[in-house]
Amino acid sequence: MDKGQEGTLYAFGSNGNGQLGIASDDDTSTPQPAQFSTNFNTTINNSFSSSLDNNSVKDSKTRPHVHAVTPFYDFAAGGNHTALITHGNRQLFMTGSNKDGETLLREPSQVFKLAEISERLQPQQQQQQHQLNKDQGQDQENSSANSAGGVQWRSVACGWAFTIGLTEPYPAPDCRDTIAISCDSNNNNNNQTVYAWGSGSFGELGLGPGRSKTGGQAIAITTGLLNTSPTSTTRYNTRYEFIKVRAGLRHVLLLAKETRISDEQGIAGEATARTVLMGWGSNRQGQLGVLTRSDGDLTIPLTEKELRAKFMEPTRIMISITARRDSMADTALGTENDHCKDSEILDMACGQNHSLVLFSNGAVYSSGLDKYGQLGPRATTSVENTKNEKGDMEKSKKVDFRIGFEQVAGLPFVDSISCGWNHNAAMDTRPLVGDPTAMTIIYLWGRNDHGQLGGGLHCRAVAIGLNGGMEDVPAGIVQVRISPVRRKGGCGEEEDSKSKEGLEFEQLVSYSCGSEHTLAMTRSGNCYAWGWNEHGNCGGGVDSSGNKELQDVPTPRIVQFPTQLNSSSGGHSGWVTGGYGSSWVWT
């Protein structure tokens, strides 16, 4: 969609609870326009067009794809519900099941509706929000965000039956990169709030022991590291600015900027800032990695039994990033400056029982279930050769999970990541800036029983230092590129999928992992899907291999839309995202 053109949000796939927002609860393999309870299409297009010139849209701290322009400030799909945050006034819209209060709506919905945050806050939270609105000079009756209770949202994450929402800071959004030293000294979270609503018995609400339901309310998380009460161990000279939140099936990751201000004899001194990761929920397979409990300045290590438990409140996650990158040779765009030692956490993604963390030097770290290779190759191995009493070599039993983040070996520089249930994707989006002919490649690894990896070509072996030596280790990662396809008529039918001796490919501008499928959008406006297709989440039709409508799609297949789509070649603004057997496309 070029700047000035109207775009449309299409949805297809699993829809038994109206989570697609298409005004029905029927599964569909034909993309249908999403419906909104207000004149939203005009609102979102105006907001999106104005955001094209807004630097915050390409802010690497808040955007999932560094150089890709997205139609929504944030978007999240849960088990049976969906949430999105608009640009502009940062409003939260939701649709789908409300059985456990996961949508903050009065009842289940089959269209996107504005979340009723002002009616769903706990009584004490309502008073605090009203006071905050008053402090910001907002008139509750005349505020443009009145229907949302004056709340502006920064990030949202959906799990199986719960939602975590993160508000914008006050007096933000104009001072995201500054530390509000002058704000209320009793608020260590920069006047931001992390809300939880829905249900979960694995600690995914983060509300502390004994709280597994919110009763249809949005409850502020004030436990663990987010506890700012005078009796908490959080020091007053520590400030958190919350950047984004992501959720898996039963676990949550929260990225924050932590600023520590030296305090000598009660006088505030120099401030130092760094990105930190918090987590809560299930860590049975190590999907949260290694967490630490702190008592003042003391760090208390946890045993493996303690780590493989439920973390009921936000807890610090420890990641030891190596100074050297054990990966494939970087692309021509890379420089040594990209690989600086002082790397910050750029993004994170959650699978069903594993997690990825992306650093600013292009390195990806993984932790959690590894039964299907979803953690990717690494420089160390959990399978060790030992000698028995007879001196024969024996191989110890392979462990199918890992508690602790380690670097994924075999990847080039990437600046965006995505997780499915048991597979992953990553891409370097830097070629999207300034060169419409530059190559973009999706790197995928993990489970492939439904063709989630798209039949891609394997990356070459990589020389990695093992115990000080050098050895070729298979990358275990495949790369997918899309050959150009010409469409005829208005049905998106394939006419010619041959590339020129395999050397010509379409530039990919957006991609996403669904639960067990993968989506990609090209600069020309074509949308492709592959993998599990039981609910039609890869679209309908029959490809050259004879795959019928709801059969698995082992290689990228163009998605057929009911009408001719506008080309997105002007502003590379096409966008895709996947959910639990569901797919969304903005074009």
Count of separate DSSP helical elements: 4
Helix proportion? under 10%
Give the termini separation: 6 Å
Number of strands: 37
| Main beta-sheet strand count, sense and barrel state | 6 strands, antiparallel
Radius of gyration: 24 Å
Oligomer: single chain
Structural class comes to: mainly beta
Strand sequence of the main sheet, in spatial order?
11-12-13-16-14-15
User: Per the principal axes of the C-alpha atoms, what is the gross shape?
Assistant: globular
Query: How much is the average pLDDT?
Result: 78
Percent of residues in beta strands?
25-35%
Low-confidence stretches: 53-65, 138-148, 172-186, 323-340, 382-387, 464-470, 487-503
Would you write up a description of this structure?
By secondary structure, the protein is mainly β. It has a domain at 322-587. It is 6% helix and 35% strand. It is built from four helices and 37 strands. The strands form ten sheets. Strands 11-12-13-16-14-15 form a six-stranded antiparallel sheet, with no helix packed on it. Strand 7 (153-158) and strand 8 form a beta hairpin. Residues 53-65, 138-148, 172-186, 323-340, 382-387, 464-470 and 487-503 have low confidence and may be disordered.
Question: SSE layout and pairings?
Answer:
Blueprint (H helix, E strand, L loop, with lengths): L8 E5 L14 E6 L6 H12 L22 E4 L3 E5 L6 E5 L12 E6 L2 H4 L2 H13 L17 E6 L3 E6 L26 E5 L20 E2 L17 E10 L3 E14 L2 E16 L7 E6 L2 E3 L3 H4 L2 E9 L26 E6 L3 E6 L4 E6 L15 E3 L5 E3 L5 E7 L8 E4 L3 E5 L14 E5 L10 E2 L3 E5 L2 E5 L4 E3 L6 E2 L4 E2 L13 E6 L3 E6 L4 E5 L21 E6 L16 E4 L3 E5 L1
Antiparallel strand pairs: 1-2, 1-37, 3-4, 4-5, 5-6, 7-8, 8-9, 9-10, 11-12, 12-13, 13-16, 14-15, 14-16, 17-18, 18-19, 19-22, 20-21, 23-24, 24-25, 25-29, 26-29, 27-28, 30-31, 32-33, 33-34, 34-35, 36-37
InterPro entries: Ran_GTPase-activating, RCC1/BLIP-II, Reg_chr_condens
Pfam families: RCC1, RCC1_2
